[in-house]
């Protein structure tokens, strides 16, 4: 019989146990082993049944057990210690508060993301973007960075995955009750739930409540449209992550961006939290936040252009996709319908809004509104998520800065990192703590610094090898349990599943491969030559075993076919003890999978992996990487701690040939280099060379792959400069900057390079020679204070393109003459041998610009002027 109404009945904790509620509601427990151990001791069986979720645990533990614990002095001492530790953690000074320039750092940073992977107990993530956002918040908490996280609360989260009997992915959408999650409603002073509201076409409204997840020191605000005041269609806006059609996605992103800013304002008003000085847009989904901030300033009396400059100054935009198909784009008319007089932000001209996102550049689709383009136009600072991805992003978005080489596009990179306390197995941490002490080990995982990782060199080989085998053994047990559950879901009876007891072997080289399943990640590259793979799996002396997991997007039948192909291979009785596919990949599975593998495999199509942090999590547990040189691996690969799969870049136009070549290279590496090293034994009976690679992985890669390192880079390179810019671009400065940009844009067509000459008399010169460069320029209605005239020089290729350029600002030497021309001079140092060339250019210059390329204007010599400029140095 089905209930007609549902309630959540909360437990009444005895007074001595009240701190348990605070510990359960702060998600620090998800990365704090001592707190998890405390909850486990409340009721070990109930803890296991709750999936390690303290809120569910406290809702299910028997009242008699609670009464018993309330009288247990030893338990109460542990509880008091844990509560005091949490209080010290959330209130004490940490890295951020101890910086010499602390007063210059932002008082608060608002961090917007469409998904957050904090813990399996709060399933609001689909993959790498959400896990990265969760790790960002956790590391910010560990470092004391005053972030406010902003996202949506999806009532179905992302889908749960199972398999049909024939291996086809099936999706399930469990209903999540916020009252049963580690969340609390944000309430007004009178106790009513706080709400934000958006105006929709036709006089309708979209309302949302604000739920608070406390992530250590960091408040995470999640907006929920499933409220009674909404009509049915509006209630469903936050139904599921990445679901629905274009309008559904647009409404989600309007709620995230516009509603998210309003939620931040509400939270700060109610709690006294400092207002953010910097807004960080994690991917384009949250880009509308900039429009709401412009509207706020316009309501305060600023004109649109000035408000735009003020908003840009304090905004950071991170792009995560290396392919245009990964960006949300909406039809122009759809966006126009949701803004303006009859909808949201009525005080802003719709055309101004549309202009921010339209692809009005060569190669763009002029009728599409691009969320990443809007994000870049609304942010003065932008970054990709690895060095290679920064290169790819500058190429992809170069159309927004016409006239500049891609290398000069103002998109930098901050390579992603992972939150070590979340992903490092407790056994790994304990081994490190035994070597250097618990506090130093904790500092190594949170703050980083290579000196804290050097002690790995002193850990005995035997200890490392015993740890690796223990973790592999735990993974074997986990795999068998999950595989048995999966086969039961597929319809198998208990009598059919006896073979599962022999699946995997704790003494066999174990390879892990787990991620989302878009085609570019090439889940089935390992199946390219199935006979060869079977030989690897069943080798009599050097076998391998493979654990695979991953979800395809519900609308991606191509991805589902890849999963089915792999599942059918893994179902073959000849190899099913050596290769398994585990459905429903998520955080809980990942935390067992990474530590238990010896090799982490990653074989995307280069350069389509923006970063790929799964290999980082594996590395922190002593797992070696075997990967295509893409994302972070392209940046940090060394033969000391892994292998690089060669790529067939010359075969990029022939996908099948490229896959054949790269699969063969993968098999070769496994047969000739990876498996021999794992099974080779030294004089002490241990795989000495393998253990040394594990040691190098931990000591050399460890400090690099930390989210603590990543967040420190964001603070130092992006947040602090953005905060300074935010303070500098007040209302008067914003008006000045907007007026200056308008004046420069209007005058720029009359800015010219009229003549260029050097003191060179021949086409050759000696290394170390310094030439004098003279340039005559026309500035039209602008003056020398509005521009910078630069000499750009360096080696040239056969097409005379300058590579690895050096830029020198020239100085005004005279003018204006009777024709209004100015003369600029400066030195040109010939500091490199071989073919060498130079050019000159004029850029806008203003003290409030973050980079000289920001305005997107540049003037270079015409062909006639260039031909008369002298000679190329060779």
UniProtKB/TrEMBL annotation:
- The record's top EC class is transferase
Residues annotated as domain DUF3417: 13-122
Q: Kindly state which keywords UniProt assigns to this record, in alphabetical order.
A: Allosteric enzyme, Carbohydrate metabolism, Glycosyltransferase, Pyridoxal phosphate, Transferase
Give the superkingdom in one word.
Bacteria
Q: Which CDD domains match?
A: GT35_Glycogen_Phosphorylase-like (cd04299)
Name the reaction it catalyses: [(1->4)-alpha-D-glucosyl](n) + phosphate = [(1->4)-alpha-D-glucosyl](n-1) + alpha-D-glucose 1-phosphate
Cofactor dependence: pyridoxal 5'-phosphate
Q: What is its EC number?
A: 2.4.1.1
- Of which family is this protein a member? Belongs to the glycogen phosphorylase family.
| Role noted for this protein | Phosphorylase is an important allosteric enzyme in carbohydrate metabolism. Enzymes from different sources differ in their regulatory mechanisms and in their natural substrates. However, all known phosphorylases share catalytic and structural properties.
Classification via NCBIfam families: more_P_ylases
Protein's UniProt name: glycogen phosphorylase
């Amino acid at each position: 019989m089905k209930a007609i109404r549902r309630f959540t009945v909360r437990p009444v904790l005895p007074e001595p146990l009240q701190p348990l509620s605070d510990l359960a509601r702060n998600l620090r427990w998800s990365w704090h082993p001592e707190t998890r151990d405390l909850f486990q001791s409340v009721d070990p069986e109930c803890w296991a049944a709750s999936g390690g979720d303290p809120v569910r645990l406290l809702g299910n533990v028997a009242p008699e057990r609670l009464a018993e614990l309330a009288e247990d002095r030893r338990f109460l001492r542990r509880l008091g210690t844990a509560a005091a530790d949490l209080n010290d953690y959330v209130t004490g000074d940490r890295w951020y508060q101890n910086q010499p320039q602390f007063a210059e750092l932002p008082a608060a940073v608002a961090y917007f993301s469409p998904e957050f992977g904090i813990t399996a107990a709060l399933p609001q993530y689909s993959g790498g973007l959400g896990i990265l956002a969760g790790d960002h918040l956790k590391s910010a908490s560990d470092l004391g960075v005053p972030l406010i996280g902003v996202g949506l609360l999806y009532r179905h989260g992302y889908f749960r995955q199972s398999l049909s009997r024939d291996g086809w992915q099936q999706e399930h959408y469990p209903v999540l009750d916020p009252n049963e999650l580690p969340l609390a409603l944000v309430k007004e002073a009178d106790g009513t739930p706080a709400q934000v509201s958006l105006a929709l076409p036709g006089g309708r409204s979209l309302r949302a409540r604000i739920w608070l997840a406390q992530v250590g020191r960091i408040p995470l605000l999640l907006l929920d449209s499933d409220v009674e005041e909404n009509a049915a269609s509006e209630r469903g806006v936050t139904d599921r992550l990445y679901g629905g059609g274009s309008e559904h996605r647009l409404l989600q992103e309007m709620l995230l961006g516009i509603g998210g800013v309003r939620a931040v304002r509400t939270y700060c008003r109610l709690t006294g939290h400092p207002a953010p000085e910097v807004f960080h847009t994690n991917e384009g989904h949250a880009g509308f936040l900039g429009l709401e901030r412009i509207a706020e300033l316009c309501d305060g009396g600023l004109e649109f252009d000035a408000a735009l400059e003020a908003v840009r100054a304090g905004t950071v935009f991170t792009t995560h996709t290396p392919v245009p198909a990964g960006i949300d784009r909406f039809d122009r008319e759809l966006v126009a319908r949701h803004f303006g007089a009859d909808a949201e932000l009525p005080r802003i001209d719709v055309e101004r809004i549309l202009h921010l996102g339209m692809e009005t550049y060569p190669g763009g689709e002029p009728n599409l509104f691009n969320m990443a383009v809007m994000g870049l136009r609304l942010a003065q600072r932008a970054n990709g998520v690895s060095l290679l991805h920064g290169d790819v992003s500058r190429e992809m978005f170069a159309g927004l800065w016409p006239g500049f080489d891609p290398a000069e596009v103002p998109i930098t990179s901050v390579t992603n990192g992972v939150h070590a306390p979340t992903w490092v197995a407790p056994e790994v941490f304990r081994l490190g703590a035994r070597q250097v002490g618990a506090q130093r080990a904790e500092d190594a995982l949170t703050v980083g610094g290579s000196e804290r990782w050097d002690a790995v060199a002193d850990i005995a080989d035997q200890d490392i090898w015993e740890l690796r085998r223990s973790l592999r053994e735990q993974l074997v047990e986990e795999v068998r349990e999950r595989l048995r559950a999966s086969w039961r879901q597929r319809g198998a009876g208990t009598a059919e599943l006896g073979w599962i007891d022999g699946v995997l072997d704790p003494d066999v080289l174990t390879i892990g491969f787990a991620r989302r399943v878009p085609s570019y990640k090439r889940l089935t590259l390992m199946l390219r030559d199935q006979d060869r793979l079977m030989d690897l799996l069943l080798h009599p002396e050097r076998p391998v075993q493979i654990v695979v997991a991953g979800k395809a997007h519900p609308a991606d039948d191509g991805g589902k076919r890849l999963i089915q192909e792999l599942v059918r291979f893994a179902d073959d009785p000849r190899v099913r003890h050596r290769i398994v596919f585990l459905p429903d990949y998520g955080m809980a599975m990942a935390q067992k999978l990474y530590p238990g593998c010896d090799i982490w495999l990653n074989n995307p199509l280069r350069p389509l992996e923006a970063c790929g942090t799964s290999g980082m999590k594996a590395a922190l547990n002593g797992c070696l990487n075997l990967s295509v040189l893409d994302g972070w691996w392209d940046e940090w690969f060394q033969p000391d701690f892994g292998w690089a799969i060669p790529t067939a870049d010359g075969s990029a136009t022939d996908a099948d040939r490229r896959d054949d070549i790269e699969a063969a290279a993968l098999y070769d590496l496994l047969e000739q280099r990876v498996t021999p090293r794992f099974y080779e034994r030294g004089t002490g009976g241990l795989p000495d060379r393998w253990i040394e690679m594990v040691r190098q992985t931990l000591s050399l890669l460890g400090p690099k792959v930390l989210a603590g390192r990543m967040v420190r880079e964001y603070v130092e390179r992006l947040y602090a400069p953005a905060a300074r810019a935010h303070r500098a671009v007040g209302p008067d400065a914003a008006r000045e900057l907007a007026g200056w940009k308008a004046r420069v844009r209007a005058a720029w067509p009359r800015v010219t390079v009229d003549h260029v000459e050097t003191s060179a008399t021949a086409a050759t010169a000696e290394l170390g020679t310094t030439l004098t460069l003279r340039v005559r320029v026309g500035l039209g209605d602008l003056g020398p204070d509005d521009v910078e005239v630069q000499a750009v020089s360096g080696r040239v290729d056969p097409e005379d393109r300058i590579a690895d350029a050096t830029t020198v600002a020239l100085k005004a030497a005279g003018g204006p003459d009777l024709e209004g021309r100015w003369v600029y001079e400066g030195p040109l140092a010939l500091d490199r041998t071989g073919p060498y060339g130079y050019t000159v250019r004029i850029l806008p210059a203003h003290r409030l610009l973050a980079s000289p390329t920001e305005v997107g204007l540049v003037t270079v010599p015409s062909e006639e002027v260039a031909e008369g400029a002298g000679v190329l140095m060779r």
